[in-house]
Design goal:
about 375 residues, alpha+beta, 9-stranded antiparallel β-sheet, two-stranded antiparallel ribbon, about 30% helix, globular
């Protein structure tokens, strides 16, 4: 009886949030640009680009600051920037399209797609003798519940291993996306770069986006800057990588997220699956990924793994997001289902992450976005 009451209460809370959610007024382009520049100056952010989507349509795109400090080259809306882990959300969207076409089942063991056991691949030989790999499914990969560390090179012995049973708990993992790429390329005989181009980038009108380096990018690309302002040249990624090799521009990224929030190319069921709470997130922060620390604030907003994104229920209803980060890059996309709204932010300075909470709130209003979880304490 208690379990039934708990379930009914959860349903009531979700329905109540949806019923009360209203479309908030958006500030004008000039106000957004002014606030972006003010915040950038306050935190010494070298360069940042922004896109706003409303009712599924791109309504504002802007770029601020520089793409290269040393040469004083301005960041422009067609400047090529590193997408980082925003790539994961795009790959998840591709997989949902494949699921709609009957080419892949989210809940089948990956063993049913691979021509040989996963540990027989050189990259996964560390898993020999551990049959838990057979419990990996595409859904568990997309919900970051593989049980792997983020990357094996973060392990003391730099070997791949299970820390938890697959499906047991959220733990962000790029390793899972490497496995997914193996399933797509060796199991389904697809080329990830070609499929992303054909099924997403071409469909959404993204001519300056690719899963690997293109020579034409060199004429207008953004270099990176770390917390101390140290320069890092833009990496020329030689091959597609599902965890995070996508290069893009803010104009193209806006088209991608507008298409995603509209659900273009997906069935209604798959579009719903994208942002449906698939697995509760109980961790106190996203990183470190294997920490056992918990935080009850996640329960208050139904913080959960979607498929390639993170979802929660805030004062404006169902909201979802995905970040992309390395030492020189800070990206973020936050979408609100009511009104089909997204703010997409690309920073070639990782210091941009310091201003995203204030900037997103300025544009979208109060969403209850869990910045405390995304970026951790401090």
């Amino acid at each position: 009886m208690a379990a039934i009451w708990k379930s009914l209460t959860a349903v009531w809370l979700v329905l109540g949030v949806a019923a009360c959610a209203t479309v908030q007024p958006l500030p004008g382009a000039a106000a957004i640009d002014g606030e972006a520049r003010r915040l950038m100056a306050a935190e010494d952010v070298k360069g940042m680009a922004l896109a706003l989507i409303d009712r599924g349509q791109v309504v504002h795109v802007a770029a601020y600051g520089v793409r290269n400090v040393e040469r004083n080259l301005l960041l422009e809306t067609d400047t090529v920037m590193y997408g980082a882990s925003l790539t994961k959300a795009a790959v998840a969207y591709l997989v949902l399209r494949l699921a709609d076409e009957g080419k892949i089942d989210l809940d089948k063991s990956i063993a049913e797609y691979l021509p040989k056991p996963l540990p027989d691949y050189e990259d996964y030989a560390d898993l020999k003798g551990d049959e838990r790999w057979r419990e990996l499914t595409v859904r568990r990969i997309l919900t970051h519940s593989t049980g792997f560390a983020n990357f094996r090179w973060l392990e003391e012995d730099q070997k791949l291993k299970f820390h938890r049973k697959p499906g047991e708990r959220y733990g962000y993992s790029g390793e899972g996306y490497y496995v997914l790429q193996t399933v797509l390329e060796d199991g389904l005989k697809m080329n990830l770069g070609v499929e992303m181009q054909r099924r997403l980038f071409d469909r959404f009108g993204m001519p300056n986006t690719d899963m690997q380096w293109r020579p034409d990018f060199a004429k207008n690309l953004a270099d990176g800057y770390d917390l101390d302002g140290k320069f890092e040249p833009h990496d020329e990624r030689s091959a597609p990588s599902a965890p995070g090799s996508m290069d893009t521009t803010i104009v193209d990224a806006a088209m991608l997220w507008a298409g995603m929030v509209r659900g273009d190319g997906l069935s209604k069921t798959s579009r719903s699956e994208l942002v449906k709470p698939q697995l509760p997130i109980v961790s106190a922060s996203q990183f470190p990924t294997l920490s056992d620390a918990t935080d009850l604030r996640g329960q208050e907003i139904a913080l959960s793994a979607g498929l390639g994104v993170v979802t929660f229920d805030g004062p404006q209803g169902r909201t979802w997001f995905k970040g992309g980060h390395n030492d020189w890059t800070g990206n973020m996309a936050v979408c609100v289902e009511v009104g089909q709204r997204c703010v997409v932010l690309l920073g070639n300075s990782v210091r941009a992450e310091k201003i995203y909470p204030a900037l997103v709130r300025f544009i979208l209003g109060d969403t209850a976005m869990p910045w405390w979880w995304e970026y951790g304490p401090g």
